[in-house]
Design a protein that fits this description.
The chain is of the alpha/beta class and 220 residues long. Helix content is 17%, strand content 36%. A six-stranded mixed beta sheet has the order 6-5-4-7-8-9, with helices on both faces. It has a three-stranded antiparallel beta sheet with strand order 3-11-10, covered by helices on one side. It has a two-stranded antiparallel ribbon with strand order 1-2.
């Protein structure tokens, strides 16, 4: 039998394949500055949103989108996720939208030091579909500074969609935030470093089923 993980401490890379393209990669390796050992739960100072609370709120957002977009569903709906963080939220959200829709993904780079956005956005993976005349919903995991999202809204608007709206699971309660209209919002969260349910620190903790505050000593 082949052992695919001869030494788990050497790092694990998970590639997610969509059709013929690799659209997401999560990499943990010796080269990153942060390295953790033991159960992930021990690194969490407190849980702020449980798995059950997240599921309930995502379902409510999906129901609201279904109601609002039913009259225009035949014009085309495209839900867009920015990899990697929003992928889990988007996957759960679209299953709660009871309308025909398409899904697409983008990958961008904007975090300079891994904890705060640099404000300079670089497109790593662009959309694979034409959005002209379609109703676009950006599924965002968290609105923090909002700089990346503000750039993406402007970037996508230039492609002449019928509409663009934002569905964000989390919005941080912070004064240092760009002015962004968010039509669908899950929770207003505290201005703390949070992980889980797609949110990471150095690519760790994305697979936690809840959202919690990371212990400061792990990243300061």
């Amino acid at each position: 039998m082949v052992n695919f993980f001869p030494n788990i401490n050497d790092g694990i890379t998970i590639l997610v394949l969509c059709s013929s393209a690799v659209w997401g990669a999560i990499t943990v390796s010796k080269t990153i500055m942060f390295k953790r050992e033991g159960p992930m739960d021990q690194d969490i100072a407190k849980v702020i949103y449980s798995e059950k609370e997240i599921a309930s709120r995502v379902a409510a957002i999906g129901q609201a989108i279904t109601k609002d977009y039913a009259p225009v569903a035949d014009e085309g709906i495209i839900v867009i996720s920015v990899l990697n963080g929003a992928a889990l939220f988007m996957a759960d959200l679209v299953r709660q939208i009871k309308l025909p829709l398409a899904m697409d993904f983008m990958a961008v780079s904007s975090y300079g030091n891994g904890t705060t956005s640099s404000g300079v956005v670089r497109i790593i993976k662009d959309l694979s579909q034409d959005i002209e005349g379609k109703h676009v919903i950006i599924a965002e995991d968290i609105i923090d500074s909002g700089l990346t999202l503000k750039y993406l809204i402007k970037y996508l608007s230039s492609r002449k969609p019928a509409s663009i709206e934002v569905a964000a699971l989390l919005r941080k309660n912070t004064e240092r935030q760009a002015d962004i209209e968010c039509r669908y919002e899950g929770f207003e969260c505290p201005d703390e470093f949070i992980v889980g349910y797609g949110l990471d620190y150095a690519e760790h903790y994305r697979n936690l089923p809840y959202i919690g505050v990371l212990k400061p000593e792990l990243y300061q």
